[in-house]
C-alpha cells in the first residue's frame, strides 16, 4: 500500500446486557404473563428479569393481573416453574442470571409460604444459582427476610437503610416513577423533575443494590434516559425491542474527537456577475440530511457546509428502481440521463452516453477526479467509463487511459495498468507542483483506509493540491471530488464512520470554498448520490460532541438529497428537481451547449 498519511460514553457489552458508566442495564419484562407466550418470549428476547403477578386461591398460586382474571390453567407452576425447569434442563437460559420478580397481590406470608412450597417441588431449580426469585408487592417486613430460603430474595421499595443481613436478602430497590415525575417519555424531563429523578437514583444506588423504577414511560427515549442515568432494570412491555435497543446502544453511540475548522465564506461573488469558469462538484456518497446533521452536531453545531446560502433538493430514483445505487446516481450527474442501477456511463438501453469530462474536454476544459474510493469505484468511473455493470472493474479500468481526464487521485492502484500518458505523483505536494499534462496520484494500492483507521487529512490535502494543479493549466476546469466512505458507514450501520467521514468531507469542502473565494468564477456544488442506512439521530450531547444514531436498513434509501452551492452561478441550483438536472445546470452555468 502506498498510502500517504499525515453526555454518553464508556460502553462495554457483557453477555446480553449493556454496561453504561460502569453500571449494568438490564431489561425487565413488565407483566410478562400478559405476553402472548409468557416466559418463553422474554427468555428468547434475552430479558434479564420477568415479572409475574400472583394471587393465592384455595392453596394454589394463580397468575393474573386482577382477581377476576384468574383461570384454572394459569397457575404459577404451569406458566413459570414448569417452563423454567424445562429451560434449565435443555440449557436454554443463556442469560448470566435471570430474575423472576413475583408481585404478590394477596396476603404476603401465606402466599409466600405457598410460593416456597411450589418452588421446592423442582429440585433442579433450587439447586442452581442462575435463576432466582424476588418477592415484590405484598411482602414480609425486612426483619423477616432472613427467615426465607436461599432462593428467595426481596424487592425493597423504600429508601430507608437496613441491617447488613437484611441487605443480603435484597435483590433490588424499586420505586414508583410517577412519585417523582409525570414525564411521558417524549422529549426530556423538565428542569424541575430532572434533579429530583437523578437524585433519587443516586440515593437508591448508594445502598449497593440494582435499582428499578416501575410505571415508567415505555419507549426508546425513556429507555435511553434511564440507561444513561443509572437505572439497572428498565421496565418494559416490549422486552425484545428494549433488549435490542439497549444492547445496540454502545455501537450506535459515538463521541467525536475529529473537528473541521469552520471557514466563513466571503460571498464576494454576489452581484458581480462573474462568468463561471471552473466547476467543483463534491459528492458525499450516501450523505443524506441526517448524515450531514450528525456531522454538524458533532462539530460543535457548525460546518463550513452550513455557512452556504443556496440550498436545493434532488430526487434520486433510477429508471429501474425506486432506490438508486451509486452507479446510476453518479451516471445521472455525469451524463444528464437517468439510467438503470449498476449501469456506468450508459443509458437505460445500454448505449454509451457522453459525460461531463468528455463534453467539457472538447470545450477546452481540464478535468479531474478525486475520490476516497478505488478509481474503478461506481461514482468516479461514471465520470470517465462506459460499461453495463459496475462490477466490470477490468473493463472500467481499461476505459481510464482512453478517458479525457487530466488528473485523478484515488485508491486502487492494483486495479489499473497501461497509464502510459499519466505521470505518477507520490504525495499531495508533488501533485500541486507537477507540470505534467496528465497526472495520477494513488492514495493506496487497494481500498483507501477510513479516517478512523488512519487516513488523516489526506482528502483535504489532495483537494487543495489537485485544485492548484488544475489552476496551473491556465484553463477552465471541471473536477468531481467524492467522499466515498460516508456510504460505508451507512452500509455497516457505523455511526462513528458516518460522523468522521462527514466531518472529513467538510474539510475538503472548506478547501473548495476557499479556492472559490480566491478564484472568482469558480462554482462549487455539494451533494450526494443517495442516502445510505435510513439513518436518524434520536439522541446526543452537543457539549461532548456525542451522537446516538439509529438505522432502518443496511442499504440505500430514496429520501431527497440536499444540494448546496456557492459561487458564480450557484443560484440556479436551488429548488427541487431530479438528480440528472445537476448535469444540465452545470452546463447552463458554464453557458455550454
Automatic annotation (TrEMBL):
Residues where Zn(2+) binds: 285, 487, 491, 529-530
Annotated GO MF terms: alkaline phosphatase activity; metal ion binding; phosphoric diester hydrolase activity
Family: Belongs to the alkaline phosphatase family.
Cofactor: Zn(2+); Mg(2+)
GO terms for biological process, alphabetical: lipid metabolic process
Stored CDD domains: ALP, PI-PLCc_GDPD_SF_unchar3
Keyword Metal-binding assigned: yes
Name of the protein described by the UniProt record: Alkaline phosphatase
Cofactor comment: Binds 2 Zn(2+) ions.
Positions contributing to Mg(2+) binding: 285, 379, 482
Cross-referenced InterPro entries: AIM6_PI-PLC-like_dom, Alkaline_phosphatase, Alkaline_phosphatase_core_sf, PLC-like_Pdiesterase_TIM-brl
Amino acid at each position: 500500500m502506498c498510502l500517504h498519511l499525515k453526555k454518553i460514553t464508556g460502553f462495554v457489552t457483557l453477555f446480553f446486557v449493556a454496561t453504561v458508566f460502569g453500571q449494568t442495564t438490564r431489561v425487565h419484562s413488565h407483566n410478562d404473563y400478559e405476553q402472548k407466550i409468557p416466559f418463553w418470549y422474554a427468555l428468547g428476547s434475552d430479558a434479564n428479569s420477568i415479572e409475574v403477578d400472583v394471587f393465592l386461591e384455595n392453596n394454589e398460586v394463580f397468575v393474573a393481573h386482577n382477581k377476576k382474571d384468574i383461570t384454572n390453567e394459569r397457575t404459577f407452576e404451569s406458566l413459570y416453574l414448569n417452563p423454567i425447569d424445562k429451560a434449565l434442563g435443555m440449557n436454554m437460559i443463556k442469560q448470566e442470571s435471570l430474575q423472576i420478580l413475583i408481585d404478590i397481590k394477596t396476603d404476603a406470608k401465606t402466599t409466600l409460604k405457598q410460593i416456597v412450597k411450589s418452588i421446592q417441588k423442582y429440585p433442579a431449580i433450587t439447586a442452581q444459582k442462575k435463576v432466582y426469585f424476588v418477592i415484590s408487592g405484598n411482602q414480609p417486613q425486612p426483619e423477616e427476610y432472613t427467615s426465607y430460603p436461599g432462593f428467595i430474595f426481596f424487592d425493597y421499595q423504600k429508601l430507608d437503610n437496613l441491617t447488613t443481613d437484611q441487605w443480603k436478602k435484597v435483590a433490588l430497590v424499586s420505586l414508583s416513577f410517577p412519585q417523582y415525575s409525570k414525564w411521558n417519555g417524549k422529549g426530556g424531563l423538565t428542569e424541575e423533575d430532572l434533579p429530583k429523578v437523578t437524585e433519587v437514583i443516586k440515593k437508591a444506588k448508594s445502598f449497593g443494590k440494582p435499582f428499578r423504577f416501575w410505571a415508567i414511560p415505555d419507549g426508546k427515549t425513556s429507555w435511553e434516559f434511564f440507561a444513561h442515568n443509572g437505572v439497572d432494570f428498565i421496565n418494559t412491555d416490549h422486552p425484545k425491542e428494549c433488549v435490542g435497543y439497549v444492547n445496540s446502544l454502545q455501537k450506535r453511540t459515538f463521541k467525536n474527537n475529529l473537528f473541521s475548522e469552520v471557514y466563513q465564506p466571503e460571498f464576494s461573488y454576489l452581484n458581480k456577475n462573474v462568468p463561471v469558469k471552473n466547476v467543483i462538484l463534491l459528492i458525499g456518497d450516501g450523505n443524506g440530511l441526517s448524515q450531514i446533521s450528525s456531522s454538524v452536531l458533532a462539530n460543535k453545531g457548525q460546518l463550513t457546509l452550513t455557512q452556504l446560502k443556496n440550498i436545493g433538493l434532488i430526487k434520486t430514483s433510477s429508471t429501474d428502481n425506486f432506490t438508486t445505487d451509486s452507479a446510476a446516481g453518479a451516471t445521472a450527474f455525469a451524463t444528464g440521463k437517468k439510467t438503470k442501477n449498476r449501469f456506468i456511463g450508459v443509458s437505460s438501453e445500454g448505449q454509451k452516453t457522453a459525460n461531463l469530462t468528455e463534453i467539457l474536454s472538447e470545450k477546452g476544459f481540464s478535468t479531474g477526479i478525486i475520490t476516497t474510493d478505488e478509481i474503478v469505484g461506481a461514482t468516479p468511473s461514471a465520470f470517465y467509463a462506459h460499461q453495463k455493470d459496475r462490477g466490470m472493474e477490468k473493463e472500467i479500468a481499461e476505459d481510464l487511459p482512453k478517458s479525457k481526464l487530466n488528473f485523478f487521485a484515488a485508491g486502487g492502484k492494483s486495479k489499473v495498468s497501461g497509464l502510459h500518458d499519466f505521470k505518477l505523483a507520490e504525495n499531495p505536494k508533488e501533485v500541486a507542483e507537477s507540470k505534467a499534462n496528465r497526472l495520477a496520484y494513488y492514495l493506496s494500492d487497494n481500498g483507501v483506509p477510513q479516517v478512523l483507521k488512519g487516513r488523516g487529512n489526506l482528502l483535504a490535502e489532495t483537494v487543495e493540491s489537485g485544485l492548484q494543479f488544475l489552476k496551473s493549466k491556465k484553463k477552465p476546469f471541471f473536477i468531481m471530488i467524492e467522499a466515498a466512505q460516508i456510504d460505508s458507514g451507512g452500509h455497516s450501520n457505523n455511526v462513528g464512520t458516518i460522523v468522521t467521514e462527514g466531518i472529513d468531507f467538510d474539510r475538503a469542502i472548506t478547501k473548495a470554498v476557499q479556492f472559490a473565494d480566491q478564484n472568482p468564477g469558480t462554482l462549487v456544488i455539494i451533494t450526494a448520490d443517495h442516502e445510505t442506512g435510513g439513518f436518524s439521530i434520536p439522541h446526543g450531547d452537543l457539549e461532548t460532541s456525542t451522537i446516538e444514531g439509529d438505522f432502518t436498513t443496511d442499504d440505500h434509501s430514496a429520501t431527497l438529497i440536499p444540494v448546496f452551492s456557492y459561487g458564480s452561478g450557484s443560484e440556479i441550483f436551488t429548488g427541487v428537481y431530479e438528480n440528472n438536472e445537476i448535469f444540465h445546470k452545470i452546463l447552463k452555468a458554464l453557458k455550454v451547449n
